[in-house]
Amino acid sequence: MVRIGILTISDRASRGEYEDLSGTAIEAWLKRAVTTEWKPVRRIVPDGIETVRDALLALCDEERVDLVLTTGGTGPAPRDLTPEAMCMVIERELPGFGELMRRVSLESVPTAILSGQMAGTRGHTLIINLPGKPASIDVCLNAVFPAVPYCLDLIGAGRIETDPRLCKTFRPA
Ligand SMILES: Nc1ncnc2c1ncn2[C@@H]1O[C@H](COP(=O)(O)OP(=O)(O)OP(=O)(O)O)[C@@H](O)[C@H]1O
Ligand SMILES: Nc1nc2c(c(=O)[nH]1)N[C@H]1C(S)=C(S)[C@@H](COP(=O)(O)O)O[C@H]1N2
């Protein structure tokens, strides 16, 4: 069965100071849109290069998930280090994901340009970064997810299908 890692990166949510609404929004979006049987692997860590690197390595190399969606730590504040951790983990960057997510996010918030969200592959796992704001989750996933199933096919990850009313998966003929 396909397994999808959901990694929340937030100092305060990891300490329980607020509820992890963004990780929950990712899981809810996937529950609505992905029709293939799949299992979430939820993790939460504080911001930091090592914390994020180690969580990503564990999800990719030990849990062997097909896809990881992260939320948080993509901004320019000193403790926002998700992109730096990504650079230590991914073997190939896929710049189109970050480009498109920033473009659609700019339609609602000018500060979307502050996010260094990126995506890349490690072995048979695709990793995509989303911003920390709960409201950014649906905007970003609606934009990029139509390309995710084919990307998973190409890297030898599990096959997933989506509900075309919510997400029109595109697989070139
Ligand atoms: N996982 C989350 N669940 C709910 N709200 C979140 C989450 N992550 C971020 N937010 C909200 O988005 C805002 C901006 O996100 P950002 O990642 O910049 O937070 P932050 O102020 O650095 O938080 P933290 O100190 O927890 O890492 C936060 O102040 C918070 O209101
Ligand atoms: N769609 C969307 N994208 C967004 C935002 C948002 O509210 N909605 N917030 C922006 C802001 S204010 C910041 S600082 C960056 C980085 O956020 P992060 O550090 O929580 O990942 O994401 C940006 N991208």
From TrEMBL:
Protein known as: Molybdopterin adenylyltransferase
Pfam family, one: MoCF_biosynth
Keyword Heme: no
Matching Gene3D superfamilies: MoaB/Mog-like domain
Coiled coil segments of this chain: none
Biochemical pathway: Cofactor biosynthesis; molybdopterin biosynthesis
MF term (GO), any: ATP binding
Task performed by this protein: Catalyzes the adenylation of molybdopterin as part of the biosynthesis of the molybdenum-cofactor.
Domain MoaB/Mog, chain residue ranges per copy: 5-151
Gene Ontology process terms (BP): Mo-molybdopterin cofactor biosynthetic process
Record's keyword terms, sorted: ATP-binding, Molybdenum cofactor biosynthesis, Nucleotide-binding, Nucleotidyltransferase, Transferase
Source domain of life: Bacteria
Record-linked CDD domains: MogA_MoaB
Reactions catalysed according to its record: molybdopterin + ATP + H(+) = adenylyl-molybdopterin + diphosphate
Organism: Paramesorhizobium deserti
EC number: 2.7.7.75
Similarity field: Belongs to the MoaB/Mog family.
